[in-house]
């Protein structure tokens, strides 16, 4: 089995959420393999429909380490065994045997997320997402909010604890929204997502869904809904 560039990109991003990874054999191999992860605080959950079919279950303790091992090969071929995976290179005799971890000691989601009806849907482009993240990092701001008022819908990098503090605003497109003004707040560190375009669904019950169809990738992230 070879891992696509898309799968390697997503797995690399998943290390920002959790270095533990558990993958089970898909019920329907024709659809590839559904891969899920969550952070230790259980406020970030991600799922990815990989095109590859994993024929054996595997459990990885240190995904960052495994990805670094894969990068040692020019043309990595991965074989899944019962207790370990082996990585070889078609052009050489190089080979690595990498043992699975005991999944009982790993942190991973055992089921998916049931998302409620969205109250607001917005689109965040790749450049917009990168810019708001850069603004938050440059100004040292711990929060990114989505808000709407008479001036339209925008992203704001700011500190929700400091009403008179610095902020950076960036206008975005809303495809569906409540007629009322709203604001939802994220902590910046929960938004370590793959830097691509997202359809963002917001539920005022305190959960968001970031979706990208090109990668078959979805993140569910908890958010605060300030009382008006």
Which labels suit this protein?
2 domains; single chain; 3 helices; 228 residues; mainly beta; Proliferating Cell Nuclear Antigen; four-stranded antiparallel sheet
Verbal overview:
The structure is a single chain. The chain is mainly β and 228 residues long. It folds into two domains: 5-105, Proliferating Cell Nuclear Antigen (Box); 120-222, Proliferating Cell Nuclear Antigen (Box). The chain contains three helices and 16 strands. The chain has helices spanning 5-14, 63-70, 126-139, and strands at residues 21-23, 33-38, 44-50, 58-60, 76-80, 84-89, 95-99, 120-124, 143-149, 152-158, 168-171, 173-176, 182-187, 198-203, 207-212, 217-222. The termini are far apart.
What string gives the helices and strands in order? HEEEEHEEEEHEEEEEEEE
Please outline the major beta sheet.
7 strands, antiparallel
Per CATH, the architecture of the largest domain is: Box
Number of domains: 2
The strand count comes to: 16
Low-confidence stretches: none
Annotated CATH topology of the largest domain? Proliferating Cell Nuclear Antigen
Helical coverage, percent range: 10-25%
| Order of strands across the main sheet | 2-3-16-15-14-8-12
Classification by helices and strands: mainly beta
Taken as a percent bin, the fraction of beta residues is: 35-45%
Give the overall silhouette.
elongated
- The residue-averaged pLDDT reads 94
SSE layout and pairings?
Blueprint: H1 5-14, E1 21-23, E2 33-38, E3 44-50, E4 58-60, H2 63-70, E5 76-80, E6 84-89, E7 95-99, E8 120-124, H3 126-139, E9 143-149, E10 152-158, E11 168-171, E12 173-176, E13 182-187, E14 198-203, E15 207-212, E16 217-222
Antiparallel strand pairs: 1-4, 2-3, 3-16, 5-6, 6-7, 8-12, 8-14, 9-10, 9-13, 10-11, 14-15, 15-16
């Amino acid at each position: 089995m070879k891992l696509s560039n898309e799968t390697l990109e997503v797995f690399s991003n998943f290390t920002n959420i959790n270095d533990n990874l558990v993958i089970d054999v898909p019920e329907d191999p024709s659809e590839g393999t559904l891969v899920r992860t969550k952070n230790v605080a259980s406020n970030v959950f991600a799922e990815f429909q990989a095109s590859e079919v994993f024929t054996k279950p595997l459990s990885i303790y240190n995904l960052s380490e495994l990805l670094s091992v894969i990068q040692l090969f020019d043309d990595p071929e991965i074989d899944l065994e019962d207790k370990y995976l082996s990585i070889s290179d078609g052009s050489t005799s190089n080979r690595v045997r990498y043992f699975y971890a005991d999944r009982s000691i790993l942190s991973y989601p055992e089921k998916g997320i049931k998302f409620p009806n969205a109250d607001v849907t917005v689109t965040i482009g790749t450049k917009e997402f990168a810019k708001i993240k850069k603004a938050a990092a440059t100004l040292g701001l711990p929060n990114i909010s989505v808000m709407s008022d008479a001036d339209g819908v925008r992203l704001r990098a700011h500190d929700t604890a400091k009403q008179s503090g610095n902020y950076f605003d960036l206008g975005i497109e809303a495809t569906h929204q409540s007629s009322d003004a709203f604001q939802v707040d994220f902590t910046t560190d929960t938004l370590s997502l793959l830097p691509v375009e997202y359809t963002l669904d917001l539920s005022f019950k305190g959960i968001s869904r970031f979706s990208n169809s090109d990668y078959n990738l979805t993140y569910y992230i908890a958010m605060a809904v300030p009382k008006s």
